[in-house]
Structures are given as C-alpha cells and as structure tokens.
Task: inverse folding
C-alpha cells in the first residue's frame, strides 16, 4: 500500500469521526434551526438566551456523557431519571443533617454509583437484558423515593457553595455548564484516546471477541454502568441546588431526553458505534428546539412533539446517507 | 384443507413408472465457490437412498435446493415425470417433498397437532379451527408410521427423536412423495436410532422415496438401498449398497490424493511440550481428553460433526468452563480457567465463527488487529496510535492483507483477509500455543492455500498449533500428528506418516 493512500485514508477517517456518520446531518439540522429561529425571533442570539440554553443543556449532557459510554457497550440504563430524583432527595437530606456540601455530594455519588453498580451486576451477573433490568430499577426507585420522603426535602441550610452548584457563575458562565464541560471533556478523551475507551467500543462491537482476547468484558460493562450512575449523582445534586429542594417528582422522562440525545448523536443502540461529539450535538439540537418553542411563543406541548419528529427524521436521514455511502 | 392423507396419491394422473424425483444437471454457485456442478440425482418410490460426502461436498446444498431454500442455477427437477419449478419451501412441500433438517423447524410453543397442520388447519362449519379433528388426524398419522407421540404435547418439551417423528407425520399430512432425512441420528441414542430406522423403513413401504443424508458408514450400510456420493460439488457415484464395501465408499468420498497442495516450509517439530491437556472433561461434551502439543508442530484434530472439536478448542483456551482435568501452557497451569489467564500464559483461539466470535465488524481493520495487544501500545492508559498503526501496518504488509487502508471497516474485507487480520491479532500479542478452529471455513479456494502457508509459518516460528478441522485434505496436508475425536472422546492419536484416511475415518466413526 502506498504511503499516499494510507494518509489520505487516515484523514478521511479522522474527519469521519468528527463529522462523519450522523454528525454531518445533525450539524446541518442544528445550523438550520439556529438560523430559522433567530430570523423569526432575533432575541435568540442574545447572550442571556445562549447562556440559558447552555444551562439547560448541562444536566442532560452530564448524564448523556455516561450514557454514551454505556450505549457504546450495547447496554442502556432507563433508571437515570428516577435515580436523578432520588439522588437529589438523599443529597439534600444528608446536607441538611451534616451541613457539609462534601458529605452531601459524597452521599449523592455513593447512592447513584450504587444504583449503577446494581444495574451493572444484574445485567452482567444475572444476565438480565439491560432494558428490562433498568426498567425494574426505575420502578423500584420511583416507588422507593416515596418510602424515603413523601414530599420535597427542603433546603434548611442555604449553604452558599451548594446554591452556587446550580445557580452560580464563573464570570459569565454558569457553574453547571462548567461542570458539564469538564465531564464531557474527560469522557471524550477517555473514549477517543485511552485503552479503556477502545475496549468499550470493542465490547459493544463484539463481546465474545473481547472475551476471547483475554479481556474481562463484564467488568467493562459494569464500569460503564457505574460511570453512568456517577454522572447521575452529579446531575442530581445540581438539580436539587437549582430547585433549592430535593424533589421526588423531578426527573420524570429525563431518561428519555438523555437517550434521545445520545441516539440522535449517532450512537448505535446495537453498540460499538458512536461518539460523544455526536451526543453534544444531539443535546444542543434538543435544547435549541425547546428554547425556540418558548421564545417563539408556541404551545409548550410542542416541546415533546417536535423532538420526537426530529429523532425519527434524523435517524432516517442517517439511513439514507449510509445507503448512499455503500458503493 | 381436507386432505385424505390416509390414501395418498389416489386420483392424480401420474406416470407410475417414472421416478419419484429426478434431478438433472443441477448447478449452484455461491460467490467464489461452485457448490454443485452438473449433479444428477434420481429417487425411486419405496427406496431408501443414502446421500454421502465429506463436509462441503454439496450434500446440504442439494437438499436445500430440493427444499426450496436455495434456487438452482442450472438443471431440471422432475417429480414423477413432470417438470416442476421449486421456488420456495412452500412450493417444495406442495410438490410433495418434505425435508427434515438437522435443526428441526417446528414451533416449540405449539402442540404436536398444531405443528402437523400448521399449513392449513381444518375448520368447522363456523370457520373456527376443528381441534378435535386435528388431534384425531394427528393420532391417525402416528399410527401409520407406527410411532406414538401425544398430539396434545407441547412440541418443545419433546426430545429431538420425537420431534423428528412429528416432522415425519407432517410429511404424511402433506402426502409427501419424497422425504429427506438430514443427518437424522446426530443427536439420537442408539435405541432411538433403531426406532427411527423402523419408521424410515415403514415410510419406504408406503411407497415414499426416502433420502438419507449421512456420513456415518455403518448406518448407511444398515438402511440404504442405494448410495450416491458427492465430492467437491460433483456427482461421483450412484450404486446399489451391495456393490460397496467400507473401503470403496470411503475412497469415493475422499477421492484424489491431496498432499501436494500444502508446500511445507517448516522444519521438524521440536521436543518441547508447549501445551499439555490432562483428563479434560466438560459438562456438555468432552470426556477425559488428554494430549500434548509441542512447540513447532501442527497437531491436527479430526472429527465428524458433533465430535467435540469446537468444544475442545473453547475449553483449552479457557473460554468454556471445564468440570475436571488440567490445561498446562508452557509449564504453567491454566487456573483460574478463563481467557484472561489463558492469554497471559500464551494460548489463544482463532474461532471457527469469525462473525460472531472474532470480528468487530463495524470497527476498522487496525482496531481489530490490535485488540489483544492494545496494552502494549499504551502509556498510562493512553494509546500511542502511531506505534499501534505501524505495528498493524507491518502485519498487513507481511501477510499481504488486502485492504484499502487500516481504517477500512473489517466487515468489508474478504473472508481470507479477515482471517489474516484475526491471525495478526494473536501474533501481535505473542502466543506460545494457537488453537485454530476450522481455519478455512468460508474462505475462497485461492485464499485457502495462503492460510495454510500462514499456519505452516506459525509452526515454523515455534508456536504449537492445535488445528481443529473437518476437512481431510487440510488435516493430512498440514498436521505433523493427527488426533481423532468421536463423541467428545479422543479415539486415536498418530503421527502423520502412519495415518491413512481409512484409519482416521474409522477412528472418527468410533
């Protein structure tokens, strides 16, 4: 093989990872959306609005970062919404009794990580399909949170550091956006550049081959579940800070938004294929639509309808594009 | 449907002298392979006709054409003198051909009676299904074959032997003129086999032409009236069974001498034991298997379908659990019994099922190649891609792997090139023992010899190669020593010089 074809192919592949697969379609959709909305409502491009969009993206992106890793290994976690609410309540309760943000945060992470560990063990040890296993966990958490507290856990401390977690700013940038960006970058680097990332793709692409190669595929999946759980822990604390309370009713449908963003970003539910960059685009598209509907003054029920249409459309365009690529 | 199945064939205008089925000049090609080339096959009513040949000889392609699973590329098919065009399994059944495949195709959640009348339930006056009639008719059918199965039993709960009977009853329900039994005894006990033979003889007595597909010589001598042998997709012989001896039949099945297709480059094997397996047993298949493999040798394992070669391969690399025995790689025991330990000690499996156990189809060539050795290209958990790509590129060049680039998805490569990538995966890791299971399955004839040359080279570089194969030429061409398996046991182990095809087949039949 000549050096020339080698390098050009390499370029194509790297370009392909950044902008290939569904990302190109998705980037175009995002651009069209932004242009269309700002023509109809110029205030879309105001600094305040952009920051508002980013803030809304933050929670979804945090959990979607873990979820992307998990779906790449060909598993899924539907319990993240229910876990999000529960984590907020627990974090707030610990905060109230200990007056320590660190301990509250730790409790939230321990609980959410534990939920991830539980899901992971059920899937890898008991070999229960992850869709079913995590629906089970979701129901347990949704019911369980009411055993823990019948109503919202109010914030009795008003610790400044806790309030800042959701509502604070560093310069002009909201704290949740910074946390989301950090988590995103770590996850991105892990998936792109580390052996762990490569193994996660490999497990999703062919678990048996990974096992035959002397790697412990179950542990890799378990790890992805735990990471997803930890992301939920962070997001849950931010959410309870924003709401100034732990709300047992929070997070309903959150799992669907997260999974929709990941799938929209081109990550295959069959595993082995996907990228965090796509997930970022997916989150942005969903949240820009949300925002657009609000500032255009449309009926807010469309906030569910339009993303539904977009998901089907984007996936369909992806199929078309894939077909065109096959010579 | 109101089939008068108790008196099949009455009233149809037929040529009673014609053959039940006459296939002429049948041809079938698959990409890169001629599966059948100008094959003739004729069945007489009331006779049991054995169809024999090695794996890959074309037996299953021929019966799949009869069954309408494959279309034929050339030739004609006549049923009782009338040319028929079988385009689908439905057509085949309509023409009166019933194939009972090795993998039985019944709906396991349905009752026996429901399965028998699956294609058309008899209905009562109101249009509802007449369950009473279905049960009664099923019982009558079982009566005719002289074997009783409860029509109300859930099919999945029955042993394979009884499911076969359900299939045969289905054949009668469809007034089949031709019944094909595809390797019917592979999972039966001796007792069940003799019951099956009684039923098959009864089918013949009813005037049905029976095709008996098998590679078990003793069974064929016991039951068949006529034998047709295929080899490499060609018709070799059709003779009354009385004109055959064990030797002539094996001769027909194996044919030419084959040694020269395998140019041997490597020297003699060393004496160092690289792999030692002692008294290995598994829950599913293996019984007390012991052998040693030496550095630099190719130890070939032969066995018929179901002999336990793949099970052995997966057990000795730590992939499948064992219930007793030990595996020792290069002096160190494989414990705990898992692939992680196996790979660390230096034993790896080149799987027979590339697609489901080997390839990561969506991922690029380079990631497929480096999977087992990624740690060697990493520092602090970060992959040094330049180093990794260079190492993969070396193997691509050395093995002349034809791929447009390292970044091509591996699913787009040909079978031979995929196999070379998977061999590279192990060589990049560095092994002492490589277990190759059916290394040329699904690989074009041209690429086969390249894979053979690679295996020869592996042994030449000092690896112990344990090769599982069902292909006699591969075995005789490559192996230094030959081990033979039958039903999970090792039945013979001999140096290549002492091995003859007859000796091997005899040990394989057990």
Result:
């Amino acid at each position: 093989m000549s050096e020339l074809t080698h390098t050009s192919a390499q370029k194509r592949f790297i370009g392909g990872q950044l902008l290939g697969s569904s990302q190109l379609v998705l980037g175009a959709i995002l651009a069209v959306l932004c242009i269309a909305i700002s023509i109809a409502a110029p205030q879309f491009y105001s600094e305040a609005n952009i920051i508002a969009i980013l803030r809304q993206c933050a929670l979804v992106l945090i959990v979607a970062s873990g979820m992307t890793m998990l779906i790449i290994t060909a598993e899924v976690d539907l319990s993240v919404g229910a876990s999000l609410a529960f984590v907020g309540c627990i974090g707030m309760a610990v905060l109230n009794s200990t007056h320590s943000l660190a301990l509250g945060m730790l409790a939230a992470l321990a609980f959410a990580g534990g939920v991830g560990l539980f899901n992971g063990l059920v899937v890898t040890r008991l070999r229960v399909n992850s869709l079913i296993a995590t629906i089970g966990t979701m129901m347990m958490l949704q019911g369980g949170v009411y055993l823990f507290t019948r109503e919202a856990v109010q914030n009795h401390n008003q610790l400044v550091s806790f309030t800042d977690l959701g509502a604070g700013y560093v310069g002009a940038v909201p704290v949740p956006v910074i946390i989301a960006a950090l988590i995103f970058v770590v996850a991105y680097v892990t998936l792109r550049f580390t052996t762990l990332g490569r193994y996660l793709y490999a497990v999703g692409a062919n678990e048996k081959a990974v096992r035959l190669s002397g790697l412990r595929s179950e542990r890799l999946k378990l790890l992805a579940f735990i990471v997803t759980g930890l992301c939920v822990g962070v997001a849950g604390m931010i959410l309870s800070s924003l709401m100034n309370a732990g709300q047992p009713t929070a997070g309903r449908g959150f799992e669907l938004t997260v999974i929709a963003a990941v799938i929209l970003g081109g990550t295959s539910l069959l595993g082995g294929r996907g990228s965090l960059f796509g997930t970022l685009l997916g989150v942005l598209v969903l949240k820009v639509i949300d925002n657009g509907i609000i500032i255009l003054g449309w009926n807010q029920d469309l906030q569910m309808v339009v993303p539904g249409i977009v998901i089907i459309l984007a996936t369909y365009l992806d199929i078309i594009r894939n077909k065109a690529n096959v010579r | 449907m109101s089939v008068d199945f108790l008196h099949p064939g009455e009233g149809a205008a037929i040529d009673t002298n014609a053959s039940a089925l006459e296939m002429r000049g049948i041809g079938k090609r698959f990409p890169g392979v001629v599966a059948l080339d100008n094959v003739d096959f004729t069945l007489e009513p009331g006779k049991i006709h054995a169809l024999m040949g090695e794996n890959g000889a074309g037996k299953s392609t021929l019966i799949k054409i009869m069954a309408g699973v494959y279309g034929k590329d050339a030739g004609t098919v006549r049923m009782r003198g009338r040319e028929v065009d079988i385009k689908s399994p439905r057509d085949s059944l309509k023409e009166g051909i019933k194939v009972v495949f090795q993998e039985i195709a019944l709906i396991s959640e349905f009752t026996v009676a429901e399965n028998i009348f699956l294609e058309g339930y008899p209905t009562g006056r109101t249009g509802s299904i007449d369950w009473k009639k279905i049960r009664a008719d099923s019982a009558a059918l079982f009566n005719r074959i002289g074997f009783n199965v409860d029509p109300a039993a859930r099919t999945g709960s029955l042993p394979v032997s009884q499911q076969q009977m359900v299939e045969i009853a289905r054949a009668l329900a469809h007034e089949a003129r031709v019944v094909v039994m595809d390797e019917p005894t592979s999972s039966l006990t001796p007792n069940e086999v003799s019951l099956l033979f009684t039923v098959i003889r009864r089918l013949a007595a009813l005037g049905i032409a029976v095709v008996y597909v098998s590679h078990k010589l003793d069974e064929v001598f016991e039951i068949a009236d006529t034998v047709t042998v295929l080899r490499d997709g060609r018709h070799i012989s059709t003779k009354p069974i009385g004109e055959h001896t064990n030797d002539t039949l094996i001769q027909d099945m194996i044919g030419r001498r084959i040694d020269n297709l395998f140019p041997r480059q490597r020297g003699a094997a060393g004496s160092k034991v690289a792999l030692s397996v002692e008294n290995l047993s598994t829950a599913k298949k293996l019984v007390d298997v012991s052998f040693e493999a030496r550095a630099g040798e190719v130890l070939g394992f032969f066995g018929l379908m179901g002999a336990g070669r793949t099970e052995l391969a997966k057990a000795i690399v730590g992939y499948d659990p064992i219930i007793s025995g030990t595996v020792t790689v290069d002096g160190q025991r494989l414990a705990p019994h898992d692939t992680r330990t196996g790979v660390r000690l230096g034993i790896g499996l080149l799987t027979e099922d590339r697609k489901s156990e080997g390839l990561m189809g969506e991922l690029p060539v380079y990631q497929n190649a480096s999977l087992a050795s990624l740690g060697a290209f990493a520092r602090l958990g970060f992959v040094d891609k330049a180093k990794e790509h260079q190492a993969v590129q070396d193997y691509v060049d050395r093995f002349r792997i034809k791929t447009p680039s390292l970044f091509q998805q591996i699913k787009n490569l040909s079978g031979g090139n995929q196999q070379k990538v998977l061999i590279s995966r192990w060589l990049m890791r560095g092994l002492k023992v490589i277990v190759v299971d059916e290394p040329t399955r699904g690989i074009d004839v041209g690429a086969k010899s390249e894979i053979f040359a690679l295996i020869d080279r592996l042994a030449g570089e000092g690896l112990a190669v344990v090769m599982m194969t069902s292909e006699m030429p591969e075995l005789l061409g490559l192996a230094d020593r030959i081990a033979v398996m039958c039903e999970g046991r090792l039945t013979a182990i001999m140096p290549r010089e002492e091995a003859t095809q007859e000796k091997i087949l005899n040990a394989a039949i057990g």
Q: What stands out?
A: The first strand of chain A starts at residue 153 and ends at 154. The beta strands of chain A are 153-154, 169-170, 173-174, 245-246. The CA atoms of residues 21 and 294 of chain A lie 30 Å apart.
